[in-house]
Every structure is written in structure tokens, then in C-alpha cells.
Design goal:
Layout lengths: L4 H6 L6 H15 L9 H12 L4 H11 L3 H8 L13 E6 L2 H6 L1 H12 L5 E2 L5 E6 L11 E3 L2 E3 L4 H12 L16 H8 L15 H13 L8 E6 L2 E5 L6 E2 L2 E2 L17 H4 L13
Parallel strand pairs: 1-3
Antiparallel strand pairs: 1-4, 2-3, 4-5, 6-7, 8-9
């Protein structure tokens, strides 16, 4: 960090005095969270994005001056992560998951419909600046596939029709409520400030995990299943017997269902030999006998 980061940044950035002062205060708070101030670069990029709506030239120079690193080093990080935008972003980022499960469930069809409806492609913004459309590799919500996110808030079990209706509401400036939230979606700039580490007080809204997420856990508890390797003895659940041995093989009526010879099956295993487990005492590793 330079001796006077605000003065240094002012010589290269085009922020007005008030904006620069506010950014410097917030950036200093970010840097104080870490033993090494440079570790604050990621949230600091979200901070400048919350002001400019993207990681601008001035934002890069500001981060560089505050952290005492080069603009090239800041740019290298800003261009690596897709949450950092290098051109003006819309008020809302609409991300459509098109990874395997969501694609199979209709994610590609949703993206194509939205692209046609909005007249934009991947990482492009509508002329009114309302929506930036994205293909997303995974929204980490496969149990609700296909999923669309608006500024990283979940909209589950979408269809081309519901997604276009959602987009129309965003364009009209109407409040939209995420599937698992209790309040309307905030803007891209507001969300960027939250990602910078300045909470807006809404972190505990909505449900933490819905029914589809907990379905597997519920079934496992009902049937007495446990994780492989837990060492728990088999538990009777009606006509089934589930085991939690080191391999987690399940049995029914006392016979294994795993392949013969597989770990945890009843097949006889070949006894281990020194050559299987260790180098013999009379031999060098990879060499001949002494």
C-alpha cells in the first residue's frame, strides 16, 4: 500500500472526489480484514463494480494503487473470474444454467428462448441496459433443474415460458421474488457491494434448503442408511438390510448386491503378499536382491 493511496489513486483515476473518498474508506476496511492486504483484491473488485457497474479502467487503477500492485496484476484477476465484468453490465444479470443436468431438463431451450426474446446472446446486454444474459456452467442447484439466476438469486424449475415472463417483469422494473427468497431481487450494483463484504441485512431471508434438497437425507434416515466408511452395523428397515461398512455395500436377505470380489463382498479375497504391500526386507526398491 502506498503512503497516501487516495492521493495516488487520484492522479490516475477519473473518480470525482466524493466517490474516491467513499471507495477509499470501503477499500481500507476490506484490506483490514486480511493479514496481507493484497488478499483483499477479490472483494475490492466487487467494490469498484458496485460503483461503476463493471470493472472499469478506473476501478483497476484504484485497486492497483490501494494495494501497491500493478494494473496488469489486477487485470489478470479481473479477466479470470466471470463474475467480474469488463464492460457495462445490465441492472440484472440473468444466468441460465446449461450444464449437463439443467441442459437435459431444458436449460438450453430456456437460453435459446430468452436469447430470441431479448435479442441478445451470451454476455450481451439489452439496449435498455436492463438485462445481461449469460450461459452459466453450474448454478449448484441441480435438484431444482432447470435453474435460472437473477443477480445470483435462484429461480427454480423454470421453463422457457416462465423465464421469458420473468425477463419481461425485470425490463418493466417490476419487483421479482426469488423462489427461495422473501424479498425482491436487488440490482447488480447492490449485489456487487454485498459480494464485496458489506451485508445488506438480508442474508437470512428465505429457506436454506427446500424439499428436493433434503429428499435424499430423509430417505436415508427412514431406511437407516449411513455414509460408506462410517463403521456402523447394518440396520434392519423392513425387508431391507442396509450396511455402513467401509465399502457401504447394501444387502437384502443377507446376500451382497455388489460384484463378486468387490471390496465388502462375501467373495474370498487373495491374501496379501509382501510384494503386494511393501518391498521385501532383502530387496532394494526397484532393484535386485542384496
Amino acid at each position: 500500500m502506498t503512503a497516501d493511496p487516495q492521493a495516488a489513486a487520484a492522479t490516475k483515476t477519473r473518480y470525482d472526489a466524493d466517490t474516491l473518498a467513499a471507495l477509499t474508506t470501503d477499500a481500507t476496511a476490506i484490506m483490514e480484514r486480511y493479514p496481507d492486504p493484497r488478499s483483499g483484491l477479490l472483494p475490492m473488485l466487487h467494490l469498484v463494480q458496485s460503483v461503476d457497474g463493471y470493472v472499469s479502467r478506473d476501478g483497476i487503477l484504484f485497486c492497483a494503487e490501494m494495494l501497491g500492485i500493478t494494473a496488469a496484476e489486477v487485470s489478470a484477476v479481473a479477466t479470470f473470474y466471470t463474475q467480474y465484468k469488463r464492460h457495462p453490465n445490465g441492472t440484472y444479470t440473468v444466468g441460465v444454467c446449461t450444464n449437463t443436468l439443467c441442459a437435459v431438463m431444458g436449460g438450453d431451450a430456456i437460453f435459446d428462448e430468452l436469447s430470441d426474446h431479448l435479442g441478445v446472446g451470451h454476455d450481451e446486454t439489452t439496449p435498455d441496459g436492463a438485462i445481461t444474459l449469460e450461459r452459466v456452467e453450474c448454478n449448484a442447484a441441480c435438484d431444482y433443474a432447470p435453474v435460472v439466476m437473477v443477480n445470483w438469486e435462484f429461480f427454480d424449475n423454470q421453463t422457457p415460458e416462465t423465464a421469458t415472463a420473468l425477463a419481461d417483469k425485470l425490463i418493466l422494473g417490476e419487483d421479482v421474488v426469488p423462489t427461495r427468497g422473501a424479498a425482491s431481487v436487488c440490482s447488480f450494483k447492490e449485489m456487487s457491494r454485498v459480494l464485496a463484504g458489506f451485508p445488506d441485512g438480508r442474508a437470512d431471508e428465505g429457506v436454506a434448503a427446500g424439499e428436493p434438497t433434503l429428499a435424499g437425507l430423509k430417505i436415508a434416515r427412514e431406511r437407516g442408511w449411513t455414509a460408506p466408511g462410517s463403521g456402523v452395523e447394518p440396520v434392519e428397515t423392513g425387508t431391507e438390510v442396509s450396511t455402513s461398512s467401509t465399502t457401504g455395500s447394501s444387502t437384502s436377505g443377507g446376500s451382497t448386491t455388489g460384484p463378486v470380489g468387490a471390496p465388502g463382498s462375501s467373495a474370498e479375497r487373495k491374501p496379501a503378499t509382501p510384494s503386494d504391500t511393501e518391498v521385501g526386507k532383502d530387496k532394494k526398491p526397484g532393484g535386485d536382491a542384496k
